[in-house]
Amino acid sequence: MTSPALRRPSYPWILVLTLGLTETVSWGVLYYAFGVFVEPMQAELGWSRGEIGGAFSLALIVLALAGVPVGHWLDRRGARLLMTAGSVLAVALVVLWSQVRDLLVFYLIWALMGVAWSAVLYSPAFATVTAFFRERRTEALTVVTLMAGLASTIFLPLTAYLVAALPWRDALLVLAAILAITTVLPHALVLRPPPPHDQAAEPSLDLGAALRHASFRWLVLAQVCYALGVGVAIHLVPYLGSRGYDIRTAATIAGLVGAMQVVGRLALAPLERRLPLPAVLAAVYLLQPLGIVVLLLGPAAAPYLFVVLFGAGRGADTILRNTLVARLYGARRFASIAAVLSLFVTLAQAAGPVGLGLVYDAAGSYEPGLWVVAAASLVAVGAVTWGTRTAAPASSSS
Q1: How high is the pLDDT of residue 204?
Q2: pLDDT tens across 320-352, in order?
Q3: pTM to 2 decimal places
Q4: In the predicted structure, residue 2 carries a pLDDT above the cut 60
Q5: Which of 94, 113, 137, 213 could pair covalently with 59 via S-S, beta carbons 3.0-4.6 A apart?
Q6: Which residues, 6+ apart, have CB-to-CB distance to 257 below 8 Å?
Q7: Residue pair 370/295 in contact by the 8 Å Cβ criterion
């Protein structure tokens, strides 16, 4: 007989490992690498940082708008066709980005990038994992996010190296090739339709019932305020450059955010099974404003302490937010409910990069914008605490 230790992994766990790989590369190339290209694009094309950051914000707006129909698609048809087509589109857009010379065309590319994001980033991956797991759902989501949490750690230094060694346009072509090789075929060959949902085994709220519950409104407020921190991550490389760090060092420090996301997921996310969830979420959300204050007021080593606090908090939130949605509202309409929440959250994320870029253009410094993000993050702490206290279980659904 075959030893249990040598048995072939079950399909759901093969799926988890596949999505962990494709999410790592997709986040690394399509999201985190952007910040490294801000300065070389500005130097060649003469665009301001606000104009460049605005394209990224436009992609986030499109992501928000596309998320709702994508959620309905995922609940009904699964992720295979969606994620495969999204990967093909993403590769084409990175290639087009490498040839851009006109600001309007750049914005068009990034508007379409928002569509690609909606098809390949965490939302479809989490919906797929949620559909295939119940008892070990948190563990499965943790594996995906632990792998993808290394995206910035891998791709920020790699992108900085490519930009230093090659013209930035050629660096983008190398990234496009990496993206094509590691995402298109895995999505096409490994993903399967989700199993039918067993309502008796796991009661779920309908979309309308979830949206009408008071807990959802508090979660929207918390997530919107917390989401402004995305702008800090996007502008961290140029911010550190303004403090005297060279681009490779700045990119390496920024890349450590991903490593600390992994630490946060390992150390903080499991606490939701041992401690009251409101307390865990409040502690996790508090790390972001603490990190920003340290970055602004701390000594020379402050960027490293910021990375620890900011990365750990955002890493744990990725798991806790999706675990919370599944726990409160059930799995049957998980993708649709999460998509509506993401609509509000992503619009707030869109304000972060362009807002900090405009602050820099107007004031010559990122600091006023960073203080605003820190204050909003404190509001998020209170809102998420109250939202989880007022939540009703999904089993209340008829």
Answers
A1: 67
A2: 777 778 777 776 677 788 888 888 887 787 778
A3: 0.72
A4: no
A5: 113
A6: 152, 153, 233, 236, 307, 310, 311, 314
A7: yes
> In this structure, what token pair is assigned to residue 33?
């690498």
SS3 annotation, the chain: CCCHHHCCCCHHHHHHHHHHHHHHHHHHHHCHHHHHHHHHHHHHHCCCHHHHHHHHHHHHHHHHHHHHHHHHHHHHHCCHHHHHHHHHHHHHHHHHHCCCCCHHHHHHHHHHHHHHHHHHCHHHHHHHHHHHCCCCHHHHHHHHHHHHCCHHHHHHHHHHHHHHHCCHHHHHHHHHHHHHHHHHHHHHHHCCCCCCCCCCCCCCCCHHHHHHCHHHHHHHHHHHHHHCCHHHHHCHHHHHHHCCCCHHHHHHHHHHHHHHHHHHHHHCHHHHHCCCHHHHHHHHHHHHHHHHHHHHHCCCCHHHHHHHHHHHHHHHHHHHHHHHHHHHHCCCCHHHHHHHHHHHHHHHHHHHHHHHHHHHHHHCCCHHHHHHHHHHHHHHHHHHHHHHHCCCCHHHCC
Number of Cβ atoms within 10 Å of the Cβ of 296: 14
